[in-house]
């Protein structure tokens, strides 16, 4: 067993107080006052006592000092082989456990070497993953808890068991948010709806905002949004340019086109949207739309001349128009008013009229009236049950048209009128009103079916060529009594 005499008091392997710390000079030359913190003995003591939580006279500190390690930057320079070579002067203990006063060189234990390696791995993580490298300036400001957490993490396990360590987390993308937005963007105006008239604002607004959310451009549609950081401003500029292009293609009314041209210099899509929203919801246009909606809500009924679709679709359509009215109108309608209007709208239908009678009876028995929301649910359920019961009972339109064509083919317009559209929730209100206007046209003069069947093709063609006024005169003559014969002399 090789042994060496115990070092004299004050030897170099004893702890050195910060007041007498030296840097890179074993002769005791005072440290340079301008040296960065990472090149002072205090930084090494910080690593050992604060990060490693070891005393200054620990085997680790003695091994580092014996190996010439004088500061934090020296500590980061060790590789695995050099850590294995670290030794310290350990006291020799006899068989009775008594210190003999002698020392022997002993390899630094593995836990101590692992602690130093943990610091190397943490420095690697800070540099390559967090993009926050440890420097000679900030090395004494390392967060202790963050370092301890790293020692228990999978990142350190990978680092400690790899010759070429790779962190468990991927290296972050250094692209700015604006770069990421530009790279992921696919400019396709067709994904957005077109605003052809101001009356389409409600459905246009709903679809447009939904699409903008997918494209992560809702900030442009928020008039109060103001970007703060440089990255946010760069991103917002690109979002503005993108949405301006969309507005250029999709805002087709004269007012909207003038808005787009107004901001063609600075591409301020945010202001375009703010003014467009104001125009469609608070201006005279909104008042006219509210007036039209009120007319529709108070006059339309669930009858064939007003609605050709299913009962449930009518109820949903009516509720959507009511919701739109309350969004654009200055004076909102209360639930009690809406309930009365809905009741009047469905009153012509037997099953829904019976629902009203049942609800009155229920209210009389319980002493509580149904709320508007409860009434809506009952109307929906009743309409669904009616539609379900009517499935398969209606002759397909093609068969009906063929039957009409065979039996009463004297007026092609009549056949076209009979092929009515099937309204649903997506039907535009103008389409419904156009159908209602056409269904109110006066009935054209027609021959009865028995007479029509007696005519040959030439006579039928001659009938088609007659103006309606002439047909009316002929039909009037056939329906009246024949003129009296000449008087007898």
Automatic annotation (TrEMBL):
Q: Where is this region: Disordered?
A: 1-38
Bias (Low complexity) occurs at 24-38
Segments of skewed composition (Polar residues)? 14-23
UniProt-recorded name of the protein? Uncharacterized protein
On the tree of life, the source organism's domain of life is Eukaryota
């Amino acid at each position: 067993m090789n042994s060496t005499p115990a070092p004299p008091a004050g030897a170099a392997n004893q702890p050195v107080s910060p007041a007498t710390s030296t840097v890179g000079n074993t002769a005791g030359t005072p440290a340079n006052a301008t040296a960065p913190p990472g090149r002072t003995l205090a930084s090494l003591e910080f690593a050992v006592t604060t990060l490693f939580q070891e005393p200054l006279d620990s085997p680790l500190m003695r091994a580092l000092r014996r190996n010439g390690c004088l500061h934090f930057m020296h500590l980061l320079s060790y590789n695995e082989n050099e850590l294995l070579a670290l030794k310290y002067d350990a006291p020799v203990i006899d068989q009775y456990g008594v210190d003999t006063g002698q020392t022997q060189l002993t390899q630094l234990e593995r836990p101590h070497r692992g602690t130093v390696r943990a610091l190397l791995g943490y420095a690697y993580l800070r540099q390559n993953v967090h993009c926050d490298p440890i420097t000679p300036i900030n090395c004494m400001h390392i967060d202790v808890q963050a370092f301890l957490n790293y020692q228990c993490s999978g990142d350190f396990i990978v680092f400690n068991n790899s010759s070429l360590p790779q962190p468990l987390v991927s290296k972050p993308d250094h692209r700015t948010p604006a770069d990421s937005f530009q790279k992921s963007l696919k400019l396709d105006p067709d994904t957005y709806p077109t605003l052809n008239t101001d009356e389409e604002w409600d459905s246009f607004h709903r679809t447009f905002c939904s699409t903008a959310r997918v494209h992560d451009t809702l900030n442009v549609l928020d008039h109060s949004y103001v970007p703060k950081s440089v990255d946010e401003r760069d991103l917002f500029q690109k979002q503005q340019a993108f949405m301006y292009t969309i507005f250029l293609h999709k805002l087709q009314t004269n007012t909207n086109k003038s808005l787009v041209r107004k901001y063609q210099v600075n591409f301020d899509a945010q202001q375009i949207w703010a003014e467009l929203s104001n125009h469609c919801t608070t201006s005279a246009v909104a008042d006219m739309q509210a007036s039209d909606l009120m007319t529709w809500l108070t006059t339309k009924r669930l009858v064939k001349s007003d609605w050709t679709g299913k009962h449930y679709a009518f109820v949903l359509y009516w509720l959507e128009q009511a919701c739109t009215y309350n969004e654009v109108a200055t004076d909102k309608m209360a639930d009690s008013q809406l309930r009365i209007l809905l009741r009047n709208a469905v009153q012509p239908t037997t099953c829904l009229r019976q629902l009203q009678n049942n609800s009155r009876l229920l209210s009389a028995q319980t002493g509580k009236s149904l709320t508007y929301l409860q009434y809506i649910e009952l109307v929906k359920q009743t309409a669904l049950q009616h539609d379900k019961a009517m499935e398969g009972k209606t002759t397909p339109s093609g068969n009906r048209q063929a039957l009409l064509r065979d039996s009463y083919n004297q007026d092609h317009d009549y056949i076209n009128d009979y092929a009515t559209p099937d309204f649903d929730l997506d039907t535009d209100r103008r389409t419904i009103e156009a159908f209602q206007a056409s269904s109110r046209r006066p009935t054209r003069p027609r021959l009865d079916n028995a007479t029509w069947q007696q005519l040959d093709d030439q006579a039928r063609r001659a009938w088609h060529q007659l103006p309606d006024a002439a047909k009316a005169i002929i039909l009037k003559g056939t329906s009246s009594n024949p003129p009296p014969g000449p008087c007898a002399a």
